[in-house]
Amino acid sequence: MIDGPEADVRWMCHALGLAARGLGRAWPNPAVGCVIVRAGRVVGRGWTQPGGRPHAEAVALARAGPAAAGATAYVSLEPCAHHGRTPPCADALATAGVVRVVTPFDDPDPRVSGRGHARLRAAGIAVTTGVEAAAAARLQRGFLLRQTAGRPMLTLKLATSLDGRIATASGESRWVTGTASRRRVHALRACHDAVLVGAGTARADDPLLTVRGLGTMPQPVRVVAARGLDLDPGGALGRTAGASPLWLLHDPEATPAARSAAWQAAGARLLPVASGGGGLDPAAMLAVLGAEGLTRVFCEGGGTLASALLGSGLVDELWLFGAGLALGEEGRPAVGALGLERLAEAPRFRLLGVEEVGEDLLQHWERIEGR
Ligand code: AOF
Ligand code: ZN
Hints:
This protein has 371 residues and is an alpha/beta fold. The protein folds into 2 domains: 5-139, Cytidine Deaminase, domain 2 (3-Layer(aba) Sandwich), CATH 3.40.140; 149-367, Dihydrofolate Reductase, subunit A, CATH 3.40.430.10. It has 12 helices and 18 strands. It has helices at 5-20, 56-64, 89-95, 115-122, 133-139, 141-149, 179-190, 199-205, 236-239, 257-266, 282-291, 303-311; strands at 33-38, 41-47, 72-75, 100-102, 126-128, 153-160, 165-167, 194-198, 221-225, 246-250, 269-272, 275-276, 279-280, 296-299, 317-322, 332-333, 349-357, 360-367. The strands form 4 sheets. The chain has a 9-stranded mixed beta sheet, with helices on both faces. The chain has a 5-stranded mixed beta sheet with strand order 2-1-3-4-5, with helices on both faces. The chain has a two-stranded antiparallel ribbon with strand order 7-16. Helix 3 runs parallel beside helix 4. The two termini are 41 Å apart. The structure holds ligand AOF and zinc ion. Zinc ion binds next to loops. Zinc ion binds at residues 55, 57, 79-80, 89.
């Protein structure tokens, strides 16, 4: 089928697949995908380039050249209507002779918000919107949340034993899940703008938090939530702060001046956040990261940070790696206390997918809104 609603769904799914290639690299902009189709054939494909420019439509139009005349463009977000470093994509599509544009929804960016669709219609282009809106909202959730709620999307990763533990009582945790799962974690890091851990995990694991084993690529920002900066600047994070960005969220009122100075000297960026409930306030942490431009944050624990984020209803997606071993009640739980008394108060998630990863089981969940 060349035209019609089924073709629209198929090509929009293709555009979403292209959009996914920019996840983790396009921030603070959205990762958008665009496919240009003429007479049932793809004549141009594009996705948002690192740092957010060029936009997806510009890349796809450049590929299509004169073949864009008379074609339909499928774009995973409303084309822009504002003048940035290049003219608006809505105008570029019209100039190229595109006759129809298909999108999932309006762009919430106040510079666009319906003006892109209006500009296209004013140029005589047929516009169809509402195509694959749910899938597009899930893929571009980070950008949409930053625009509408001022915070990035938060993904939580948990790697646990069969009984939900992440370490033995002594803290031994290195090899709970297998090598295939660890590779997968690196791929998940790569499609986020930043990796976040709590200070306890940074002290216990001395992690690097970089993406490794997947070739050269832009690295996610490394973020540690450490209220009083109780971390050793001589550890792996401090030693690499000059090479790969390291941001430390802390409460200046709980931080000795000498520690701030030591971390600044090591090359870390310090971001002040208010305290709340014994640690840093979870909503304030995400607001600060959103203000810095982050759209997708990948939290790898530990249990205290995980419970603070879960308890505040801020975990948007969850990846649960389950390994075939039992660590017992004496093991360390993946999630600290939530202070729940009733099941009705528990944060709840909807299953998005299940896979075997090596010898482990991987589950992907999304928060059920309002929980
Ligand atoms: C992108 N990539 O493929 C599309 C975007 O800062 P600017 O001028 O690059 O504009 C960013 C806005 O452009 C962004 O918030 C969104 O509204 C719109 N579309 N942005 O980075 C793209 N199509
Ligand atoms: Zn644009």
